Amino acid sequence: xxxxxxxxxxxxxxxxxxxxxxxxxxxxxxxxxxxxxxxxxxxxxxxxxxxxxxxxxxxxxxxxxxxxxxxxxxxxxxxxxxxxxxxxxxxxxxxxxxxxxxxxxxxxxxxxxxxxxxxxxxxxxxxxxxxxxxxxxxxxxxxxxxxxxxxxxxxxxxxxxxxxxxxxxxxxxxxxxxxxxxxxxxxxxxxxxxxxxxxxxxxxxxxxxxxxxxxxxxxxxxxxxxxxxxxxxxxxxxxxxxxxxxxxxxxxxx
Length: 254
Ligand SMILES: NC(=O)c1ccc[n+]([C@@H]2O[C@H](COP(=O)([O-])OP(=O)(O)OC[C@H]3O[C@@H](n4cnc5c(N)ncnc54)[C@H](O)[C@@H]3O)[C@@H](O)[C@H]2O)c1
Description:
Layout lengths: L9 E5 L4 H12 L3 E6 L2 H11 L5 E5 L5 H15 L4 E4 L15 H29 L2 E6 L2 H5 L5 H21 L4 E8 L5 H8 L3 H9 L9 H11 L11 E4 L7
Parallel strand pairs: 1-2, 1-4, 2-3, 4-5, 5-6, 6-7
Helix pairs in contact: 1-9, 3-4, 4-6
The chain binds nicotinamide-adenine-dinucleotide.
Nicotinamide-adenine-dinucleotide binds next to helix 1, strand 2, helix 4 and helix 7.
């Protein structure tokens, strides 16, 4: 494993109790950072903390990223406790059911946008004051290939993730002069609890067809996403902002 230097840094990871977020937390701790994990359930946060604590200090907070007030309070508490916020990874996300747009339930549309798009915005906004104060910050938003390509029967997820790409580009340009670099990653299928839940409703030939689109011939592992995200959250990432980094095993063509 290459050493990424995050010594002395304080990072918030949303959706940090599972999947890509949990892998990021592990890599951050191995790189010397202190980590605050935000997630929905206390139980899954406790499990994550027990797993990660041997690697370093882990703060956990029960936060619904779709609740702006909840997010603001949590960010204020982290800044007060650690005296700084250096990095934010927005990994909290929900993937909806696959439903034809003509029948797409409005409440599913709303929840998808609330968590995947507004939640990302609320978290970005909430960490800005401490980052602006120190003139330093790294933000990584976890979008999706769905936001680039548009997945059929997943209009809300695709729209929200495309919105995250637009938000990243906007914030990247706006915050560059302030020393805050904002980038996003666009995973294809990764082996996480989210994928395992989706997979249950997939025919084996559907999964095979998805894998066939990936030139590297397999799905991604969470630690592979974490390696790129940890680098994007380090000082070594110094001349990239507002950018979209591929995590698709060669599937993406742009
Ligand atoms: N796994 C994939 O194949 C894949 C592909 C493309 C993009 N992504 C994106 O990567 C990110 C991480 O996905 P994952 O596969 O690790 O998912 P996951 O379901 O395994 O983990 C996501 C975590 O986010 C938490 N979460 C959900 N809603 C939340 C909320 N409102 N507030 C706080 N926490 C919340 C969940 O409790 C869970 O712990 C998501 O944004 C997802 O859309 C995943």
